[in-house]
Amino acid sequence: MDEACADLIGGMIRIKPRAVLGLATGGTPLGVYRRLIDDCKSGLVSFRHATSFNLDEYVGLPEDHPESYHAYMRRNLFDHIDLPLSRAHLPNGNAADLEAECRRYDALIEEAGGIDLQLLGIGHNGHIGFNEPGRELSTGTHVVELAEATRQANARFFNSIDEVPKRAITMGVGTILKARTIALIAKGEDKADIVRRALEGPITTDCPASLLQTHPQLIVLLDRGAAAKLSRLSPDLSGGSTLPEERTV
Ligand code: F6R
């Protein structure tokens, strides 16, 4: 799955060297980023002319805090590839005026010509970026209160849950859905239920990822565990399958 996704991103950059990439953090993209680093180091792909926009950043966490998304991206990708840092964008969660920062970020994406390929993970509650389930969703980049479930899921990266910020800046679902291609990635059986709800359930703000069903160019890359509950795939997947272990959907 990591390889397929890295090939997708590498292929996009080869076809369009000035591509605008939407990037994600979290555990799921780590393998993809490791492969992109290898591909860049071996000369298979170059990000020299590319631009990137990350989905989100915590509010109030210093950029040099190891768990800030700025630090994550440097550690896991930017420090090891040839993408100029001046074109590697993340929202500034420490801006004095957070609302102005949200507008600035959307304007920057527009100026860059919009996102060609958006990489997306999915939260256990169906969030994409930090667009949490609720009665309504926002279109543009905005400040969110993180759901308790999300803070608990992310507490694994901090010393305790008290250290997990309560707010974040995130691209809105409108910004995400405007990307020309979206690559949704998920791994592990613990994501099987939410992957099924997102892809086969009703389109509802209770599961923000379900809005992806409306996107004309959605590519879904799952490992076997995350795909296990998709009824549309194949009854074989639920047991006694002859499919290879590393099947990519
Ligand atoms: C990260 C992000 C989140 C994660 C999601 C899944 O930038 O926007 O939506 O993609 O929380 O996280 P992992 O991959 O850690 O399961």
Written overview of the protein:
This protein has 249 residues and is of the alpha/beta class. It has one domain: Rossmann fold (3-Layer(aba) Sandwich). It is 29% helix and 14% strand. The protein is built from eight helices and nine strands. The protein has a six-stranded parallel β-sheet with strand order 4-2-1-5-8-9. It has a three-stranded antiparallel β-sheet with strand order 3-7-6, with helices on one face. Helix 1 (2-15) packs across helix 2 (30-41). The longest helix is centred in the first third of the chain and has 14 residues, at 2-15. The model is unreliable at 238-249 (pLDDT under 50). The protein binds fructose -6-phosphate. Fructose -6-phosphate is lined by residues 24-28, 55-56, 121-123, 127-130.
The computed structural class is: alpha/beta
The distinct ligands, each listed once, are:
fructose -6-phosphate
Say what the CATH topology is.
Rossmann fold
DSSP helix count? 8
Overall outline: globular
Q: Strands across the major sheet, in which order? A: 4-2-1-5-8-9
The CATH class name reads Alpha Beta
Strand content of the residues, in percent? 5-15%
| Strand and helix order | HEHEEHEHEEHEHEHEH
Largest sheet: 6 strands, parallel
- End-to-end separation: 8 Å
Number of domains: 1
From the alpha-carbon coordinates, what is the Rg to the nearest angstrom? 17 Å
**Name of the CATH architecture:** 3-Layer(aba) Sandwich
